[in-house]
Structure formats: C-alpha cells, structure tokens
Amino acid sequence: MSTDNVYINSIRNFLQPIWNLLTDEKVTEVMINSHNEIWVEIGGKIERTSAQFKDEDSLRAAANNIAQSVGRRINNEEPRLDARLPNGYRIHAVIPPCARKGTTMAIRKFSAVQFTFKDYVAIGAMSTDGAQFLDICMKLGKNILVSGGTGSGKTTLLSVLCSRIPKGQRIIVIEDSSELKVEYEHVVLFETRLPNEQGLGEVNIRDLLKSSLRLRPDRIIVGEVRGSEALELIQAMNTGHKGCLGTIHANSAEDALVRLEALAQGGDSQLSEKALRHQIGSAIDVVVQISRYPDGSRRIGSITEVMGFDQAGLYNVKPIYELSRLQRQADGKLKGELIPAGHLPTFMNEIEDNQIPFPRSKFNPR
Ligand SMILES: Nc1ncnc2c1ncn2[C@@H]1O[C@H](COP(=O)(O)OP(=O)(O)OP(=O)(O)O)[C@@H](O)[C@H]1O
Ligand SMILES: [Mg+2]
C-alpha cells in the first residue's frame, strides 16, 4: 500500500461522514460549516450535501485527529489550523468560539494528475495563442505574477507555467505549505515552519527568500506572495533574477501591482514610495489574471504587460490578450476566447531575435 493510502486510511475513521465526498473524483473541495452543514464544490459549482457528522464533538475529534496526524494541534490557544496532508489535501480549520456555527473546515483536493499546457488549452482555460505566448514569456525569463481571487486557480496555473521552464536552470520554490507540482531536474523546495508552543522557531517566506538569494538561484518561485517578502522578491527580480514567478490575491493587473506595493511596504523598506513603485514597475514584466466564472469554469481573463511606472503616478500596464465577451451556450457553459488586445509587447524584438516563430500579426497590433 502506498504511504498516501496508509495515511488516508489512518484518518478515514474520523472522516467517515464525508468519505464518499472525499473519494468522489468530481468533488474538488469539501466545506464543513458545522457538523450538519456540509457543502462541496463539484464541477466548479458549490452545492450543499446531506452529509453530516453526528455532533459537534465528533467533528471536533476529526479536526483534532487531522491536526495530530500532521504533528500539529488545534485548541483554545491555537484555534486555527492550516495544513497540507501527506496525500496532498490542503486543509484549513477554525474552531469555536471563533467559528460561531461550530467547527469549520475546508478540505481542498488537488487533482492527482497535473494539468499540462495542452490540457489547459483543451478545457478552454486559455487559447492556443495565449498558451504559446505564455510559453514564450517563460522561455525568455519574464517575471510573471499570477493574479486572481480565492480558489480561482492561481496555484494550478503556476504549476502549469513551471512545467515550461527551459532546461538547465536552478529553481528554488518557496511555499507556506507545499502545493506546487514542479517536476524539474534541478529544483530546491522550501516550506515555511510555524513557531513551536513557546512561540519560537518560526521560519517564514521572507526568511526562506533571503536564504534563497544566497543559494544561487536562477529562478525563484513563491507559491503565494502575501507578506513582507514582496520586497525581497521585487529586489531579486530587479537584480538579475530573471523568470521569477509568484501568485497574488487581486482582481486585476493594476490591483495586483498595488497589492504587491502594499505588501512590500510592510517590509520596513528604506525606499520612498516613489522608488518602490519604480522598482515594481520594472520588476514585473507580465501579469496573468485568472478568474472563476459563473459556470464554474476557471479561465485566464487577461495577460498584461507591465511597462513601468509613469509620471502621472500610475503603473503603465497594457493588456496583450483579453477574454472576449462570454456567451452562454445551450448546456449552460460559457464560451469565450482569449484574443489579442492590439498591444505589441515591448519585448517583440527579443521574440524575433530568438527566432521564435510567433509573428507580430499574432498580436493584432493597431
Ligand atoms: N483551469 C481550471 N479548470 C478547472 N478547474 C481548475 C482550473 N484551475 C484550477 N482548478 C481547480 O480549482 C481549484 C482551486 O485551484 P487552485 O488551488 O489552483 O486555486 P487558488 O487560486 O490557488 O486558490 P487559493 O486562493 O485558495 O490559493 C482546485 O480544485 C483546482 O484543481
Ligand atoms: Mg493557491
């Protein structure tokens, strides 16, 4: 039996009431709001189920056991648990009184199979040209931010992009809890550590980023930029580390840059606001925006070039690809294409100099 199966069997007893949901391949997330209110995401849509735990105590016991199984705890002192289970599930739990209806949990299942670029195009999450363009950005070592809302598919898209890193580089991946699937020959994987019971020993993303910079990385990949490490990341990008990647929680390319700025400001920067913005404007090359749509699908909504910070005090951003208007089809699915927005990337010369067969006409330049 594989270690994954041994592990999952060990927690199976406690998770019996939701076992069918966890083993249903179509279910991607199980959300427990209280012992008798359990929802799932199935085919991208959220639905309530009839599954129930016997009472709050048995749900709480399940949460305790999951925590223990990964050497953590969830109790009065630490009423929140963030964990990645050995079989790949990501789990977050909050217990009462913070969770007012009862123990609350979300279990995200990651599909065992990794999406490839091809699959991503096949499910309509991006167009063939959009995919080729992102592939080019990866080849040329552009610094890319994947931006999107909660559960919009950022981590999945980041994994897809990582699969296109050209051979022969040294990659360092830094995550809070290891989620990314990076299959690469030369890769260093870092994961943060929570403080112990005495509040000691914490290692955060920023610490690991500082270490990474001394470990001769070619590319640094930060699973989710959500703290003051934004500052080091921007500086790494500006000091010759090409091809850095990260995800950020934001609703548009501009928002992503503003959010990065706010996060970097928390990093006791000696930089003036203006200098920081200039650094961000030159560090980030491309922002890929991903969203979850009402039909449950996740798609790339835009691919935007960042061309600096202008005199008027705004980030100079121009969409290269944008999603066309979505139209509802008979089966309820939305149909749309990622189409060129008319902006020729400023690095078109680089594409041509590298003899990449992707002509100017692909961008529909105005
Ligand atoms: N293009 C896609 N089409 C369909 N399902 C997808 C797609 N991308 C991701 N998913 C599924 O959507 C769920 C959320 O994906 P993911 O974890 O990548 O999102 P996220 O934006 O990183 O979430 P979070 O904000 O919680 O970190 C997963 O179950 C994943 O398998
Ligand atoms: Mg994520």
SSE layout:
Layout lengths: L2 H10 L6 H5 L3 E8 L2 E6 L2 E5 L6 H14 L10 E5 L5 E5 L9 E5 L8 H6 L5 H12 L4 E5 L5 H9 L8 E5 L11 E5 L13 H9 L5 E4 L6 H10 L6 E5 L3 H13 L7 H11 L2 E7 L5 E12 L5 E9 L3 E2 L5 E2 L2 E3 L7 H6 L13
Parallel strand pairs: 7-11, 7-12, 8-9, 8-10, 10-11
Antiparallel strand pairs: 1-2, 1-6, 2-3, 4-5, 5-6, 12-13, 13-14, 14-17, 15-16
Helix pairs in contact: 7-8, 8-9, 8-10, 9-10
What does this structure look like?
The chain is α/β, with parallel strands linked by helices and 366 residues long. The protein folds into two domains: 3-108, Beta-Lactamase (2-Layer Sandwich), CATH 3.30.450; 117-363, Rossmann fold, CATH 3.40.50.300. The chain has eleven helices and 17 strands. The chain has helices spanning 3-12, 19-23, 56-69, 117-122, 128-139, 154-162, 205-213, 229-238, 253-265, 273-283, 348-353, and strands at 27-34, 37-42, 45-49, 80-84, 90-94, 104-108, 144-148, 171-175, 187-191, 219-222, 245-249, 286-292, 298-309, 315-323, 327-328, 334-335, 338-340. A hairpin with a 2-residue loop joins strand 1 (27-34) and strand 2 (37-42). Helix 9 (253-265) crosses helix 10. Adenosine-5'-triphosphate binds at residues 28, 108, 110-111, 123, 125, 148, 150-156, 298.
Short description, anyone?
With 366 residues, the protein is α/β, with parallel strands linked by helices. Helix content is 29%, strand content 25%. It has two domains: 3-108, Beta-Lactamase, CATH 3.30.450; 117-363, P-loop containing nucleotide triphosphate hydrolases (Rossmann fold).
